[in-house]
Design brief:
The chain is 23% helix and 20% strand. The chain has four helices and eight strands; from the N terminus they run H-H-E-H-E-E-E-E-H-E-E-E. The strands form three sheets. Strands 3-4-5-6 form a four-stranded mixed β-sheet, with no helix packed on it. The chain has a two-stranded parallel sheet with strand order 1-2. A two-stranded antiparallel ribbon has the order 7-8. Helix 1 crosses helix 2.
Length: 153
């Protein structure tokens, strides 16, 4: 998931704690859990208070993480694919896994960021991932290809 698991970080933790049991028992999360399939997400700005990752434990997403319904994505390798997560407010790290196909999951705007720092075409070249999957912007976009050393990204 690309962030925005919840639309607001201010829902009652008690109601979310109660509903997280329902989520785990009766929804898709339960199907994943029963099948031993992990669900990963990155944190979006609507998932935390005051744009601070430190508030995550007291938010609805934090409760789902604590209950093991979802896991926060740091990095993960599946077969020959390296996946790196970058939560809202974090700076993306350059890819060092050059021998694997690499994906950066990132909660940022592309090219325009209003009052926030976007990821730019130059960042895409520098960070060196094969694919970038972005959250944060609510508008659909066409796929953007960025040339890098005779390679489309």
């Amino acid at each position: 998931m690309r962030g925005y698991v919840f639309s607001l970080p201010t829902q009652s933790p008690r109601s979310v704690a109660q509903s997280s049991n329902v989520v785990l028992r009766w929804t898709l999360f339960k199907q994943f859990t029963d099948s031993n399939i992990d669900v990963y997400t990155i944190v979006g700005n609507h998932d935390i208070k005051y744009d601070s990752l430190e508030t995550l434990p007291v938010t609805p997403l934090g409760i789902l993480v604590k209950s093991d319904a979802v896991k926060l994505l740091d990095s993960l390798t599946v077969d020959d694919v390296f996946i790196k997560g970058c939560h809202f407010t974090e700076e993306p790290l350059a890819n060092k896994q050059n021998d694997l196909f690499s994906i950066l999951l990132l909660h940022r705007f592309y090219e325009s960021g209003f009052n926030e720092i976007p990821i730019t075409r130059d960042d895409v070249r520098t960070l060196n991932y094969d694919v970038y999957i972005l959250g944060h912007d609510h508008r659909p976009y066409s796929t953007v290809k960025v040339e890098k050393e005779n390679k489309d990204i």
